[in-house]
Amino acid sequence: MSKVNTKINILGIEFKNPVTVASGTFGSGMEYGDIVDLNRLGAVTTKGVANVPWEGNPTPRVAETYGGMLNAIGLQNPGIDLFLERDIPFLKKYDTKIIVNVCGHAAEEYVEVVERLQNSSVDALEINISCPNVKQGGIAFGTDPHLAEEVTKRIKTVAKQPVIMKLSPNVTNIAEMARAVEAGGADGVSLINTLTGMKIDVNRRKFLLANKTGGMSGPAVKPVAVRMVYEVHNAVKLPIIGMGGIQNAEDALEFMMAGASMVSVGTANFFNPRATLDVIEGLEEWCEKQGVKDINEIIGCVR
After folding, report:
1. Is 301 a catalytic residue?
2. Which domain range does residue 226 map to?
């Protein structure tokens, strides 16, 4: 039994440890239930949920890249009705916190999902503001500070759970986006979402993804993600969930030292289904070796 205190208190919630999963890489845990003991995770962050089922983008929609992958899944999901009926009851069987990722094409769609979750037993909401705003000509909420602040305000008027705004890295100034959602009343932020990328099949002289572009994730994005977490930590007072290429405890420690209170494991789940457990165990081992009694000591320790 580890003597290290790994509990993290943020958002008015006590998490048993600082490790969760990145939305879209773990479903709602059902696919991993036979491999990963969900009771050991600080939280499970679900795949994006919309007000109605989304079919997602045409195939091919996943491609490997150096040090990562591209995906253009298009937030395919079964919608809030099935999620309430199937996913939440499944997750409630486990001793872990539940963070629901919410997506939408317009503020009204986000609000509808958040309203449906008001009386559910989920612990927190993570809002994916990389979705295009159909009323603003396809501009993502996450790339315009004004839109980000406004959608945060709209969601906070109806949310009963803490609201975590998931920030897009596809901006010039990530700190500005963080300050915008803080002004809108966000309880926390998570970052980074995927970087926009492209891959071309040179033999076929065609785009590899049917969507042409996709979200790049994996180890190659980690230095960018760590830098952005550091910038946001120094710009706002909100707790941060850091993500972007985390494969092991050393990666997680970089994010936490840069200012993240929790970390999300994403792409690594695809090539190492036990990645989350490796990170949890690795953090405990590192703390024991370093004589760190409380993992909170390392949060934001670099200046």
Report:
1. no
2. 8-56+75-195+217-298
> For 106-149, how does the pLDDT look when each residue is reduced to its tens digit (9 = 90+)?
999 999 999 999 999 999 999 999 887 767 766 789 999 999 99
CATH (domain of 288): 3.20.20.70
Q: Examine residue 293 and state whether it is found in any structural domain, yes or no.
A: yes
- What is the residue type of 267? T
Spatial separation of the C-alpha atoms in residues 133 and 221, rounded to whole Å: 25
Is 233 within the bounds of a domain? yes
The catalytic residue among 103, 131, 287, 301 is 131
Question: Does the reported pTM lie above 0.90?
Answer: yes
- Helices then strands (H, E): number in the chain? 9, 18
Tell me which of 71-75, 157-161, 249-253 is least confident. 71-75
pLDDT at 2 over 80: no
Show the DSSP H helices in 38-168 as ranges. Answer: 80-82, 88-91, 107-116, 145-156
Tally of domains within the chain: 1
Of 153, 138, 141, the residue nearest 103 (C-alpha): 141
